[in-house]
Amino acid sequence: MFIGTEASALTLVGGTESTGVSYNAANSRSGMSLAGSGQQVYGELPTALPTVNISWQGLYWGDSAGYNVIIAKDGAGADLFRLVAAAGTNTWQMQAWISGAWVNQGAAVAVGLVNTRGPYQLRIVAGASGRAMLYANGVLMLNQAIAFAGTTVKRVIFYNGDDSWTAAISEVIINDDTTLLIGAIVETEAPTSDGVDVDGTGTWAAIDEVPYSDGDTVALPTAGNRHSFKSPARTSTLANVLGVGVAMRMSCDVSGPQNAKFYLTIGGLRYYSPTFALSTGMVPYQYCWKTNPATGLTWTAGDANAATLEWGVEAVA
């Protein structure tokens, strides 16, 4: 599962993290603003998969002249599917990339393009017997059989195609199984104090700012160094917790540890993510535990909200 409602969890190309755009302030502290041609924000699954469910909140405004809203690419990076704002109308149109061109799939439909944040959900089942389903505010708006040229989805891009078109994107989920995301939300929790592990330099205050700054960091100079963070108990009463994840922007120097891994601390024990290979430039990384690693069972709201839950990162050689 990929999740992200603040820019530290997503890759921005030309866009900006902003507190001045529309987003759900109960669940996050900012949104992503795409205010110019070619600007985009994207998330990527670690493995390309045949079925994905995408959920997001997005406020779109402009002259509705045929601009891309969302693009899906396959595991090889090739175009697979897109939604576009149909030219001159307040509608969205599904298109598939077939034989080197975008081909309309079904009819366009009005889904609240202008001045409504959603939420929106999109389900893509790739392959020759594929299908795409679009929901707006929990209502099925488009349900189209599509003979996709590709068989998997890996990257999902929220895109701006023109300078007169603006979008505010937040609460992105890309779910790598068959679970529909109707009613799903992302709750982003920023650290308010350091946890038990305080190796290296810097504190929680170096990574809690909005918009984020890559000039203010926590540094772990030696393999095995760890730093963890925590916040007060959350108050969510959601019955179903789909996952608990950690997202950080990270980089490495040309010497020293070249890798890192996330962890959750539960009951005094650390539960690790896979190891990430870092680069010398800041890149967002994340990992989501879809079940409680301490129990192997579905997360309860109490476990996910507990003040004793810590999250952190460890430097790896």
Q: What can you see in these coordinates?
A:
This protein is 2% helix and 47% strand. It contains 1 helix and 22 strands. A hairpin with a 2-residue loop joins strand 19 (259-266) and strand 20 (269-277). It is globular, with a radius of gyration of 20 Å. The two termini are 26 Å apart. The mean pLDDT is 90.
Give the number of helices.
1
Distance between the termini: 26 Å
Main sheet properties: 8 strands, antiparallel
Write down the Rg: 20 Å
Average per-residue pLDDT, rounded, comes to 90
Encode the helix/strand succession as letters: EEEEEEEEEEEEEEEEEEEEEHE
Measured as a percent range, the helix fraction is: under 10%
* Fraction in beta strands: over 45%
What general form does the structure show?
globular
Give the tally of β-strands.
22
Low-confidence stretches: none
By secondary-structure content and strand pairing, the structural class works out as mainly beta
